Amino acid sequence: MPSLPGFFVNYQAQINRALDELVPPAATQSPVIDAMRYTLLASSKRVRAVLTLLSAELCGGTPARALPVACAIEAVHAASLMLDDLPSMDNAPLRRGRAAAHVQFGEAVTVLAAFGLLNEAYAHIARSYEAAPAQRLTTLLAGAIGLDGLVAGQAEDVLATGGTVTFDALERIHRRKTGVLFSAAATAGALTAGAGAEDVAALSAYAKNLGLAFQIVDDLLDVTGTPAETGKLTRHDARKMTFVSFSGVDGARELAGELCRTAQTALTPFGRRAAALNELAAFVAARRL
Ligand code: GRG
User: Fold this and answer.
1) Among the atoms of ligand 1, which is closest to the Cα of residue 231?
2) How far is 172 from 179, CA to CA, in rounded Å?
3) Alpha helices by DSSP H, 129-242
4) pTM over 0.70, yes/no
5) Which residues approach ligand 1 with their CB closer than 6 A?
6) Nearest to 289 by CA among 3, 60, 49, 42
7) What residues have CB less than 8 Å from 201, skipping those under 6 apart?
8) Which of 61, 60, 64, 87 is nearest to 11 (CA)?
9) What confidence tens digit (pLDDT) does each residue in 218-256 have?
């Protein structure tokens, strides 16, 4: 089974340590903090944060400087998963190989914990960088979450559930739900390295296509994967239109492969220095986890 590229292990360890410090255990009993840590620290590939660290390195920066914003992005991602799983949205009982947060802690605590993670994400950027990069990074993140990003994509997705969507609408939903945060992750890494506009644009194009491919494979794994592989209930998207409903299993895999090749083409200016990001794209095209 295609597994994560070998270099992930080292990055994941750094990211997991930093996330543990970002939301430390509560000093006195706090179900909200428990719920934040429950989802944030559960088993995850950490693809978005690794993308931030790799992008920073590719632009001459260091993982250490990129780590705070990489963690902020993982906190946003975890918050989005908690909200997405709620009964009023995707109604998913299983996430990251265990009960979803609302099953474990109830809906009220889960909504508050998601807000808590969002808040900590911004606070972490504000305290970790000088004023000018902090402002750029928070603006970037707000754009990715907001009205042309996660919130917009999720709104259109939820409102379309049970009905029909066009292929273009589906692509827009998935680009906003997943592609935009991937793009912000790569851009953030490049910005922490002081990259120029051309490098930022190339990495953003790479990540935007990678993110859409990642989401298409996510749809595919809902049909062809197992809960043991994906950590969530499978066949759960049957009431939704997905790329698999439009293109079939083989067509969706083909489309994801094409997008990954487009992503790799965007890396051409970096030459062989982009080997790790090329490997990540090859993994996404073939992934089963
Ligand atoms: C206010 C943050 C915020 C969000 C509101 C709920 C919502 C809008 C958006 C949901 C977006 C969403 C859940 C997109 C799905 C993205 C996706 C493919 C998730 C699975 O990602 P993996 O496989 O998961 O990287 P791990 O567990 O490995 O991190």
Assistant:
1) 27
2) 9
3) 131-145, 150-160, 167-174, 180-192, 197-224, 227-230
4) yes
5) 44-45, 47, 76, 79-81, 83-84, 96, 118, 145, 150-151, 154, 177-178, 214-215, 218
6) 3
7) none
8) 64
9) 999 988 888 888 888 887 767 788 899 898 999 999 999
